[in-house]
Amino acid sequence: MKKSIVIIPTYNEKENISLIIESVFSLYQEVHVLIVDDNSPDGTATIIENYQIKYANRLFLEKREGKQGLGTAYIHGFKWALGQEYEFIFEMDADFSHNPADLIQLYKACEQGADLAIGSRYVKGVNVVNWPMSRILLSYGASKYVRWITRMQLHDTTAGFVCYKASLLRKFNLNKIKFVGYAFQIEMKFKAWLLNAKIVEVPVIFTDRSRGNSKMSGGIISEAVFGVLKMKISSLLGKLEI
Asked: Could you say which protein family the record assigns here (predicted)?
């Protein structure tokens, strides 16, 4: 996994951060990790700084002044990674809902020609562990809704476990990404689709967090439902900036 970096946004992830750092580095000697922390009051950043001594020149930390949203954290990370000339740029959660062992599958998909590889929960049935049925239906229904509105032929439109080729990210105006919550994932995929990117879905198993608290909220859901419709209308009117 040469020239690869995994971006992990954090906010109050002290229960998970040591384990996820050790897990990624134990699996892959060549990969680097960038953690974007939004001033976690639980001391997440301090734990990361201690690990930077052990993983010098492999583990990087960007600290922001406050909680600004998942989307802006990834945009911050993308800009940093592009400035450092990484070729393969990953998104991954800190809570082990995304299995670090699956990074290699996403990497291989991009190495073999994909511009964007998606770790998909729904490309082969429903591969979700430890979620209540209500949340499975919400997530699966959201992906179906987004697919219907946007006409993207993707099964998991809200997935947050992905690998981008830097060459694709450079085609985006990252300052024009509108969404800050989980709808950010939809916007990025939709704009990649409008750019005629080669998008590949790789089946993975998603496991709900066992430590720490979920960041899901009603505002995030509302942004996704209404924002996607607005985004699609803007694209039809030729007003969507990529």
From this structure: Belongs to the glycosyltransferase 2 family.
